[in-house]
């Protein structure tokens, strides 16, 4: 009932804007029916480890190999979700992941500093639009294009020692154009498989980025399903002494709501 009400409210708002004109011009086509809009919202968890090269302040990049167990041990905050709106063969969607990871590094002898508190914040925000080149009751294949915004920042706070009380920060924000495809196939009455593949950067922001995901889901009702799969994402970015050339990959699980 709640989800039907959302559609009624949206349709009513559009109707209120159109009625004053439509009532005075019979030859104007009727207000389009908005009831065929379909929406999907998902909250997900991505148990991703990170491997690659990271460099700050123009120093030589250092290899980083962090399994998910190390990341979650130092995780302060994370939010991951996506939303999609679809009408006929046209779709648009957003995907967002944000993490805040903090760790204290103790220095040898504690002279320069007793310890350095390191905080890493990472935002990945993606917006796409697409068109379904295949759209049947059993399968849907969308070609998509869009932009991915990245924002990565590292903060360093020295505690104690000669430089105690000082802080440094280095990071970057950039945008990558991208293209790709999304696929969903219903293999059984309540079981489906889904995947996406995206590639971008092309030297506009990063030199190259790609994002692959595949898995399967189960529809408990017409409005709710659970999904599980595997996701791998890579980005190769460098600018003004900041280097971020990493691969993140791991299992993903999601709760999906449709209305």
Protein model, in words:
The protein has two domains: 1-35, no CATH class; 37-258, Lipocalin. 10% of the residues lie in helices and 66% in strands. It has helices at residues 2-22, 68-73, and strands at residues 38-46, 49-55, 62-66, 75-87, 90-106, 115-135, 139-159, 167-188, 191-200, 208-219, 224-239, 242-258.
- The CATH topology name of the largest domain reads Lipocalin
Low-confidence stretches: 1-26
Walk across the major sheet and give the strand order: 1-4-5-6-7-8-9-10-11-12
Portion of residues in beta strands equals: over 45%
Supply the CATH class of the largest domain.
Mainly Beta
> What is the count of distinct domains?
2
- Oligomeric state of the chains present here: single chain
Give helix % range.
10-25%
Arithmetic mean of pLDDT: 85
| CATH architecture classification of the largest domain | Beta Barrel
* Alpha carbon gap, first and last residue: 10 Å
Report the principal-axis shape: elongated
Please work out how many helical segments DSSP would assign.
Answer: 2
Structural class, by secondary structure, is mainly beta
Return the string of H and E elements: HEEEHEEEEEEEEE
Layout of helices and strands, plus pairs?
Layout: H1 2-22, E1 38-46, E2 49-55, E3 62-66, H2 68-73, E4 75-87, E5 90-106, E6 115-135, E7 139-159, E8 167-188, E9 191-200, E10 208-219, E11 224-239, E12 242-258
Antiparallel strand pairs: 1-4, 1-12, 2-3, 2-12, 4-5, 5-6, 6-7, 7-8, 8-9, 9-10, 10-11, 11-12
């Amino acid at each position: 009932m709640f989800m039907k009400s959302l559609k009624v409210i949206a349709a009513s708002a559009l109707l209120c804007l159109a009625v004053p004109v439509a009532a005075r011009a019979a030859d104007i086509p009727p207000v389009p029916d908005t009831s065929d809009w379909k929406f999907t919202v998902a909250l997900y968890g991505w148990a991703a480890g990170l491997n690659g090269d990271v460099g700050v302040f123009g120093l030589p990049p250092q290899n980083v190999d962090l399994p998910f167990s190390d990341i979650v041990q130092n995780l302060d905050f994370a939010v991951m979700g996506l939303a999609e709106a679809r009408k006929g063969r046209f779709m648009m969607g957003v995907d967002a992941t944000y993490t805040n990871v903090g760790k204290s590094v103790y220095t040898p002898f504690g002279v320069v500093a007793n310890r350095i508190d390191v905080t890493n914040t990472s935002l990945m925000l993606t917006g796409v639009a697409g068109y379904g080149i295949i759209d049947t009751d059993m399968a849907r294949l969308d070609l998509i294009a869009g932009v991915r915004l990245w924002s990565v920042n590292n903060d360093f706070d020295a505690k104690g020692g000669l430089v105690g009380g000082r802080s440094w920060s280095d990071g970057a924000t950039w945008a990558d154009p991208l293209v790709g495809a999304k696929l969903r196939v219903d293999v059984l009455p309540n079981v489906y498989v889904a995947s996406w593949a995206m590639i971008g950067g092309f030297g506009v922001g990063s030199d190259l980025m790609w994002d692959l995901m595949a898995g399967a889901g189960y529809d408990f009702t017409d409005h709710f399903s659970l999904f599980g799969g595997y996701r791998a994402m890579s980005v190769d970015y460098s600018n003004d002494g900041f280097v971020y050339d990493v691969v993140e990959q791991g299992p993903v699980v999601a709760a999906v709501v449709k209305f």
